[in-house]
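help with this.
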Amino acid sequence: MTAASPATYVRQSSARRNKSEASPETQRAATGERAAYDHPGREVRRYEDIGKSGYDTEVIRPDYDRLIADIKAGLVTHVYVYYVSRLTRQNPKQALAELLPLLAGGLTIVSTTEGTFGPDNTMDLIHLLLRLDAAHNESANKSNAVRGAKALARAAGGHVGMAPFGFTTVERVERTPDGAPVAIRALVAEPTEARALRLAARAVRWGHAVHAVSRYFDRRGIATRGATVGRSRAASAWSDRALALRLRDPRIAGLAAVAIKNAKGDTTGYGLATGVPGENALPAPDTAIITPDEFWSLQSALNGRASMPRRPGDTPSLLSGLGILFCECGCPMKSRRFNAAPTRNAYQCSAPAGRHSCTVSMATLDAYVRFRIGRLIGSVDPADPGDRETADVLAEAARRFAAAHADPATVAQRAAVAAELSEATASLDRLAKTLATASGAAARVVEQQVTAAGARVDALTASLAALDAAAVPAVPLTGWTSGEYGDDGAWWDTAPIAERREFVALFIDRLTVRRAAAKGGRPTHADPWGIVAPRVEFLWAQPTSD
């Protein structure tokens, strides 16, 4: 006779602060006591999955999987649970398909509240099936009720879930589109947290880094949302990501938002709601924390942080840090400055020392790049079909200029619509492939889904076209090529370095610098670009697909 090897399994979908009947503490005590009573002196293995659903088939339960593997390996013969539903709440057919082979192999399941389910008793198996079916139906009904309540609340403009930092919720009665009254939770600004967000927004708009603001919040003891909602995150501190997420949420400006999710379905950010049918928008709060103008100014400041010098006193060079200057080995090139001898300033490969050396004069390359762009602008002939490639480069530069100088609200809305259009188009393609292989009733259902998805794609396409039509890509090329600015170089010589860098980024996607064939060599008046031209390869601006 095989010696008994008992084990306990504890599971709860979410850890509760109270000592409820199904709390992990209660389960541990009850199952451990029963296992020790039934098998005195035997070692009791322990398996726990806290915060893991037993109903959702997509949820991975590491300890449950380990328990099943140990049962199959013969390391566990008796499993003790508080309720059978702690093992699983999935469809009884799926659950039995997994458990029956284990029971046939000699496993005994002991519920401290529902009895014993042994391997050799038909009535035990019937009782187990009834328990599994009841647990599944309970979860299914609860899931349907929760989904229905959330859908009803959203339809009436209510907030679902935890209120984000800066807000709290108040209950009020609204009416659904069908006219039915429903109690919802509406977002309103929470005074203390809203003041903290206003302070953070103002600091970032004035040039302070999000990192510095989050450290300031920690020093001042401003509590995070996690510190105010429960014991598990009571000691949580501010992170750059958490604060940036709040500052990029359109709801702080009283605007409706949409959640941006990754492939796993986790929320990674928030964007501006577009109002397109089918969009799962988060309703705008009753009260805003900052004005829309302040919000868009804040977004511009957040977007501009990456391109700013690391230290306030730094002056960026023309080409480094733009993401366009590369060595022939593929490594980006960086600037190297000599304050005592500025003529020695250069761009050099950022590859580790000793691998190879590739250096080019900063002054010479900057002047050559300006010369090539000026020649490109001045030489285009729209009537010449051979100049089509040059005309395309200028058109792309004009588009980039318009995007850089457009209203931030319009830019954000266009980006949101373009992203939704991409997702909707991919969904339509998948449905179309499914429809091609479907038949009968399934085909009719898929056909309805294709029709709805097609209407959404059409609406998004029209919305994107309207936003594009509203943009005016008026790039002032005449100012750069006229005698007053272009020919004598007056604009280039007097423009701030930031404007020159923007000018270069409009026209160039990549510059590749090859190593010099030999050391030394200086440009001459007769051939000023003879030294640098053979070493530099230009990739002019190319349009990017949305």
Notes: Residues 17-21, 143-150, 306-313, 481-488 have pLDDT under 50 and may be disordered. The longest strand covers residues 167-175. The chain has four domains: 6-149, 167-307, 315-404+472-546, 407-470.
